Amino acid sequence: MTTTKRTRDQELELVTTWRRTLHQIPELELTLPKTQAYLLEQLRPLNCTITFPIDYAIAAYFDGKKEETIAFRADMDALPVYEQSGRDFASLHEGHMHACGHDGHMSTLLLLAYRINDILDELPCNILLIFQPGEETPGGAGPIVDTGIFQEKNVKAVYGLHLWPMLEAGTAATKPGPLMSRVTEVTIDITGKASHLARYKQGIDAMLAGAKLLQRAYMFEQQSLSDNIYRLLRFGKMEAGRVRNVVADTCHIEGSIRAFDDTIFFYLIDGLETICQDLAEETGTAINITYSSGYPAVNNDDKLVEYARANIPELALLDKPEMISEDFAAYQQIVPGIFFFLGTGTGIELHDSHFDFDEKVLLHGADLFEKLARIGLPKLLH
Length: 382
Known about the structure:
The chain is of the alpha/beta class. It has helices at residues 8-24, 33-43, 102-119, 141-146, 149-152, 206-223, 262-283, 302-311, 329-332, 360-375; strands spanning 49-51, 58-62, 69-75, 126-132, 155-164, 172-174, 177-180, 182-191, 231-240, 250-259, 286-291, 298-300, 316-317, 337-343. The chain contains ten helices and 14 strands.
């Protein structure tokens, strides 16, 4: 195989061009025609087999004629955010923005693809690169898993990363076991009865029922579980009523339940439903709860993390999990995997309209992935 030796500066120029071009064409959810077309333009010169496991996804398979395969994944979708970064490569799609770093994730994986193209003969495993739509919503990892591509390519381990503003720029970190929470989005609709405020006793106040529901739900979450159990039952949106002088006959509440342990997760669901049932009986309201399908918890394989840290000593160890979620968990349902955080050092929160980072950190992401490809699999996974 012909190899191409690129300098660090040349690689930085590549990832910067890729990231900034992708940043200008953000697309949402599962339909990403411009993003896919641009990635394909970069991948087609390489010695890999390209397939499309689901619409707008890309699988680039580097066949090193080995028995086993390692997979790496990058998410592709953007967010419905109006960009305020002020950069000259800001989004050209008004109201859409790569405010979560997925443009950087894709660029990191592209650089890995170019490196793998040069060193495939030196690697102990074949390499499968997955560019996945729909991570933010509605979830693209599950449908890709369902295609059977991991079984077809004999994938034995999977890796992914996410840019992380609170870590020092270029630092890669992870932890064994729970890293990111299981989540379901909760929607509660309360129906009461309208009446003029002057005759409020003739109405059934859905707003008051909603306020009581929040108080009871928060008290239940805080007082029924130990402080050392990572979990979340919280609401971020509440709408009730129509005008100031009429008892509210509707109340709409939206929030999340998150936990790492399924027992705790369903304990919170059961407790919330009991609160709603009791409150409906007390107030005379009708209360309906619905849940999204959500994502499982991201649980890193202990042995795989141990093996990675033994061979990549600069890999930092996190001391606690995070309450955010990631559909990378779907891959870990079928093969061992590790999800990493890659520091940007900016402190700018994910999903912020000013989100930005220095592209130099992407070189460190590609370094991490290349090292994982080179060390292959621990014996216990063979």
